Amino acid sequence: MGADASKIFGELDKKSTGTIEFKFAIDVAANLPKKMAAHADEFLAKVKKGEGIETEALRKFFEGKKIDTRKVLAAAKKAKAPKEATLAFTSEEVKKSIEIDGMAKRPSGKPTPEEAEALKKQKTAKAAFFETVRSRLGLNKKSWSDKKIAKALLAFQKNANDEEKKRKGISLEPPSGTRDFFPEDYAVQSWLFEEMKKVGRAFGFQEYDAPVLEHAELYKRKAGEEITQQMYNFVDKEGAEVTLRPEMTPTLARMVLKKMDDSGEIRDLLPLKWFSIPQCWRFETTQRGRKREHYQWNMDIVGVEGVTAELELLAAVTTFFKNLGITAKDVGIKVNSRKVLGAIVSAAGVSKEMFAPVCVIIDKLDKIGPEAVTQELADKKVPKESADMILKAMECKTIHALAKLCEGKVDTGAIDEMKNLFKYAEDYGFGDFMIFDASVVRGLAYYTGIVFECFDRRGELRAICGGGRYDRLLSLYGSVKEIPCVGFGFGDCVIMELLKELKLLPEVKEKVRRRVDFVVAPFNQDLFGAACSVANKLRMGGFSVDMLQTPMKKVRKAFSYADKAGARRIVLVAPDEWNKDSVRVKDLRNVNDDEDKGDVIPIVQLVELMKKAMSA
């Protein structure tokens, strides 16, 4: 860490106790730049949650790593700063605030004279209340405006409510690293998944699924990988070792093997082209774009040896981006070959048994830097000369430069594969997305050929998706011969962050906002049954209908509800019209037109006329 280590540890451990509070360390890590945050996350993942962190262990871990002292000190300062303005309110003040809030409620439209008067009185009462609070706490209005005190009061009430719920053993937050999907969030997620499914179907793939609970043995066969340390695994009541799946590819392999006969032939039309959007679980440090549960769009091709399979998958990924309005200026796809890397590592004197662990280390190059990679390779007994040779290959900026470096040492077939892939990508129309990057190796041990990783060009987010060829995975699970396979995984968390960054979400939210064809509103309780019959008739006619559960005395309130529910039209079931076997239908696009009273339509013609109106 250099000469400034004492400054850093002096700030992290002010009282010189030799330990740092775990929560404080998490907060510091959250405020660090990307590469240093990756170092911190790697260290914190090895620490038991809640335990104090020994400064000496932290010092040893960061020894030799490039650290910006100024940025670490700034992160520590941010971590110590109050997250928001906090004030302590008395129970009487909380009670008074609730009382004032109940004095009036701002209507959605223009207030009536009575409502306007009540709002005026409420505003005066609020101003007097905030002034009383400032006086008691000795605050000045310049630093503590009415709006700031109101925000602090809400935070105080929320905290008090949370504490009360904790005492009762209830938490309204989902488990750490997981998410709730309220209807508006779920609508966006459903839209995203449907866009993924559209691409899968457009490319001739079939959708499949499997249980979220999987045999732990599927992942233990790849022992030594980080993923085996991140599983939500347990022994069930029958004594079976199971896990919530951390990824889908081993499950796919298991399912393909079920279709294989004793000779190793797959009893299905080849190539298999399957896609799925499974929920996956990994116990890891959460950060932007990374949760402990996430959904991952997987597309895989089984049975094609050449790079045409990789080409088809990359075409699917880029088509998905284009459909969402994401261009090659926003994202790129880094491509490399594990075959070439394997030959280079072998030429550097590294054994085949060490190839997979070495790939896991090299995969961290962008996160932890060459010095740290060299150190980790040394820890695996890889000589410095060999590490230097590997890192030199990682620095190649073009396929041509890599080919020149490998001349006479490596079979050029793997390099020719990459050249063909880039040529075909140009022919397919997505060559502008493609970038050669020798440092991309992907951390999973089962990759055997072309590997790729999609990134945002501003460098603010984690990998958006990644994949590659894994021809030996089925052999690991019992296949009598190698079966060529290639696939990718595309998580839902990072792409959502990218859509936010590119300001594409507002358009999506408008597209998926709550909508319904009709709201049916009974005039009173006596006409509720009649309204039910109208709603049923419209639904049987193929329309979506929101039945107003409680009759509203004021028609404008019914209009307001229908507008918020996203209805295109409201059907009013009132005595005058109903007695004539009719209902009144008003187009809500003209809701503010007081002269438009809507159309009176006979019940027997309602569905037919509405179908014509909707198609117009």
Describe the structure.
With 616 residues, the protein is of the alpha+beta class. The chain is 47% helix and 15% strand. The chain contains 25 helices and 19 strands. The strands form four sheets. Strands 3, 7, 8, 9, 10, 11, 12, 13 and 14 form a nine-stranded mixed sheet that branches. Strand 12 and strand 13 form a beta hairpin. Helix 3 packs across helix 15 and helix 6 packs antiparallel against helix 7 (113-137). The protein is globular and about 90 Å long. The model has no long low-confidence stretch (mean pLDDT 87).
Report the sheet-strand fraction: 5-15%
Average pLDDT, rounded to a whole number, is: 87
Helicity, as a percent range: 40-55%
Structural class: alpha+beta
Low-confidence stretches: none
Q: Count the E strands.
A: 19
Reported for the largest beta sheet, the result is: 9 strands, mixed
Distinct helical segment count: 25
Task: Determine the N-to-C terminus distance.
Answer: 70 Å
Radius of gyration, whole Å? 31 Å
How would the global form be characterised? globular
